Each structure stands twice: as structure tokens, then as C-alpha cells.
Amino acid sequence: MGSVSLKIGDGTARFKRATLCSSAVNILMLFSVITTNLFALYAFTFSPKQHLDNLFHHPHRNISLISQHVSLIIKEIDSSQRKLAQMEKELLGYDTLDLSRPNLAAELKLFLQHHQLPLGKDSRTGITEMVASVGHSCEKSADLLSQYMSYKVSGPCPDDWSLAQKLILKGCEPLPRRRCFAKTVPKPGLTSLPVSLWKPVSDKIVTWSGLGCKNFNCLNSKKLSRDCVGCFNLTNGYETQKYVKARSKNDFVMDDVLALGSGGIRIGFDIGGGSGTFAARMAERNVTVITNTLNVDAPHSEFIAARGLFPLFLSLDHRFPFYDNVFDLVHATSGLDVEGKPEKLEFLMFDLDRILRAGGLFWLDNFYCSDDEKKRALTRLIERFGYKKLKWVVGEKTDAAGSGKPQVYLSAVLQKPVRI
């Protein structure tokens, strides 16, 4: 709030400037002080006639009483100023992390230190200082954040990617930058496109620290999510048929969906893309797809990159770092379910709508509906956006984990309207 970003060397900085909120707080503080002083002046100068005799007959008692009133008024002024200062601090957002607390890493203090502009306040923008970019919720995980920022400058970074991901999942996003060298993993055997799309990835070229499995055979024997069962097997199983062969009426064939695109499909965004198979199939059709993923229980990001595709290590709580109306297609599976209040899904849907161009396609692929109420709530939410329903299928299919119990899924292809 009240900040802009600027690239300086290899750092991203935010700049503090005067905002409507901070101006309003200052006006409120001034009004409070003036009102309180007027009240004090009134208390000193006005006294009913019937109390005049008491004033002259008991001067010491009245002076003491007035002193008590003045002390109470001063305490109220101090309390109001402290409360208003705290309100202003919270409105600034980035200033909530207390850098004076003990046991805070020196690197974190240095990164978050405010830097005054060398020429003073900018007359055009009101900017006064540079402030480092760090997630607002990091304040709630200050101990973990300090641990993350405890390292030797210009030395090797600790093997703590799982700690970084834990911070991200707690809302501490973006993380602060660090001045250490990340662990390098040799990646022999990488091939060029298009061979890399379907060539099995070696166990040796990914990082297994912090994960239960230590090889892809182990991962393929587990159900990592509803959309990732055996999804790292690029030679056998359903992964090789996905998007080109339908197993149920909820499975749309990719070429059929692409034919619905108005103006052509050139670039897309995949939410929770598992091992990157959606992006791989799109790459075969000369469509560039960015896959949003985290390394939850598996090295998703490294695996996708090994296939020659673009992984984006980002949680669904982070505002997507793309400009408005840039994607021709947004693809999402059950990973879209953020398991929270309905408002949380609304914020996510509005951000997806923001980055999708008018006439672009939103492909909701086998979204798991745990009950009818959830299906109705999702339907009502989608209808608020006014998308045109090009495909809409609600059907049952057997659980991919092999439980044999039929479950309800929603698949749809929706077209974003032109809004004026």
C-alpha cells in the first residue's frame, strides 16, 4: 500500500510515500490534540457560580483536583497518539516486522533496513525512502525467517529449501533475498526439445533432501494428489495418454479444446500442473505454458525444468506476477481448491480472470466436488464472471487411487467475455 517497485542492480526495492490513509491518520491525530486541549482550557476557565465560594475557601484542594484532571488528559493524549501511531504503522504494511527484537539475524536486519533517498523527498511522487520487498505475513514467522536468513555471507547456502517452502506456505511471500550460493546439482544427460518432453528424468539430477521418497520409482507408487498418481512415469501408465485420450466424459481432448480458442492459443498458465504433462502436450502444439507448482512431497519444479518446460515456484496465495490480459488460456485442476473460506477462492478466481485476456479460455479440468453444496458454490462463483460455457460436464468417475468409489467431478471450458 503506497509503494512502487524499482529494479536496482539485482535487488527489488519498494518505496515509501505519503498516502491518503497516512494523511488521514495525521489529520485525525491533529484533531484529537486540538480537541483535548480545548477541553482542558474549558476545564481551567469555566466554573459554575455556585462553586466560586469553594474555590476561594479551599484553594489547595481545588488545585489538586485540577492537577488530577490535567494528568488524566495528558495520559489520554499519550494513549491516543500511541494507538494512532500503531494504526499508521499497520497501514504501512511492510513496517510491522520489529527489527529491534532479540535473536534476529543480522542479514535480515540489513536486508530490511530503510534507505533514505540521497536527494531527499521526490516532489512529484512523494517518495522518501526505499524499502525492501518482503511478505507482510513474515512478521508472524519471524523466528523461522531469522533462521532462514542465518548463513555465511558469500558462502554456501544451507540446504533449507524445505524451510523456505514452509515459510511460503505460511504466507511469508516473497522471501527476502540472500547473499549466499545455492547448492548446485550436476545435471548430466539433459536433452534438447522435443526429445526432453518424454525422456525419463534421472534420479541423480534432482534434490531429494527433505522428501520422503528418494527416487521416482517410490514417487510413482504413491498418490501425491488427486491429479498426480504415477505422474512421474513418462514411459508407461496414463500419463502418456493424458489430454490425447479420454478415459471418461470429464476428460477433454486437448485438440478439441484448442479448436474453441478465439484468436488462437499461444501462451497459457497451468495451476498445479503436477509433473508438467499439460505443458508438454501444449509444447508439442507450439503453445508456451508456464506451470505453477510447489515441491510438495516431490521435486516438481526440477522435474518440469528437466523436461525443458517453465516451472513457477509460487503459492496460490501470491498475486500472480503477470500483467493484465496476457494469457490465452488458463488451465486448473483440483489444485485450484485452496481449502479455505469461500472468499479465498474468490480472490484466486479474480486474479486468474485478471491475467486471462478477453476471448481467452478457462479450462477447469476434473475439479473434485466433495458434495453438492460445494458444486453449487463453485457454479455460482463461476457464473458471477459472466463466462460463456463452451463445455460443461458434471460426472462421476472412479477414484484414481483405486478405491473403487465413484466421485463427482466438474469439467468445463469457459470463455472470458469482453467487459466495457
UniProtKB/TrEMBL annotation:
BP term (GO), one: methylation
Principal subcellular localisation of the protein: membrane
Transmembrane stretches, start-end: 24-44
GO molecular function: methyltransferase activity
Pfam families the UniProt entry points to: Methyltransf_29 (PF03141)
Coiled-coil stretches noted in the UniProt entry, renumbered to this chain: none
GO cellular component: endomembrane system; membrane
Membrane topology: Single-pass membrane protein; Single-pass type II membrane protein
Location of the protein in the cell: Endomembrane system; Membrane
Alphabetical keyword list: Glycoprotein, Membrane, Methyltransferase, Signal-anchor, Transferase, Transmembrane, Transmembrane helix
Entry keyword Transmembrane helix: yes
Gene3D superfamilies, per the entry: Vaccinia Virus protein VP39
Entry keyword annotation includes Transmembrane helix: yes
PANTHER family linked: OS06G0138600 PROTEIN, S-ADENOSYL-L-METHIONINE-DEPENDENT METHYLTRANSFERASE SUPERFAMILY PROTEIN-RELATED
Family statement: Belongs to the methyltransferase superfamily.
Name this polypeptide is given: Probable methyltransferase At1g29790
Organism (species): Gossypium hirsutum
